[in-house]
Amino acid sequence: MKKQExxxxxxxxxxxxxxxxxxxxxxxxxxxxxAKEWRLAxxxxxxxxxxxxxxxxxxxxxxxxxxxxxxRYVFHHTDPTIILTPTLADRSQVSRAETSxxxxxxxxxxxxxxxxxxVRIETGSGILLDEIPSIRQSDTWHGPNTRExxxxxxxxxFCRTNIEELPIRQHRVLTPVVIHNHHYTPLLIEQLSxxxxxxxxxxxxxxxxxxxxxxxxxxxxxxxxVKQSKGAPHMAKNAILISKPRFPLKPMxxxxxxxxxxxx
Length: 264
Known about the structure:
Blueprint: E1 10-13, E2 18-24, E3 27-33, E4 37-44, E5 53-57, E6 69-74, E7 81-87, E8 93-103, E9 107-116, E10 118-123, E11 128-133, E12 139-142, E13 150-155, E14 172-181, E15 187-194, E16 201-203, E17 209-210, E18 214-218, E19 224-228, E20 240-243, H1 257-262
Parallel strand pairs: 8-13, 14-17, 14-18
Antiparallel strand pairs: 1-7, 2-3, 2-5, 3-4, 4-6, 7-10, 8-15, 9-14, 10-11, 12-13, 16-17, 16-20, 18-19
């Protein structure tokens, strides 16, 4: 994994009547500060492979003005600083494999699933302005029927198995998923649902973004074990926590997570 020099998140100062612009992968973001108002403009490109990172530029990039989304926030007086933080989606993400695969009995594999980052925008005093996804994802229903399940985001970007092939993309977050098949029959993997709202984000020394590792064990007699590691995964070197989960997941919740992760 190659090093990416600078991170787009952090605290930035803006003088009154000034604006700054960010390019975060396929996302363009503009923030303008007035005496009593913050203005945001954003756009998500259809080029999902775009990996450009430009930070707090004074020159406005080529925004498609007819596709921009504008937001205004009115204050008694605006704070001189703005804080950008990577966060994860407010729902689970269902990633469908382009080609399904099976894990033979007594085998295990680590797959790396990527998820689009959301940009959390706050004032220096901690007032939340908005959370904007870097990529617009479609909705999908994940469950055994229309009455049981949950509304999720859908993704066709599923997984990679070789960490050396993983590019550093600061608009996507990687989740290592370790799957053990202790059953006597092959385990078919067609899709994977990640509980993104229960995961943290860590930044490694190269600027890559990671969540905790998830371990899934497919046992005999319909006994399934799902665990979430504490802290950053071991492959994220010198990682620091930059975003806590929206909803911390209690250990007892993992009892029923296996089916929601791999089936339905």
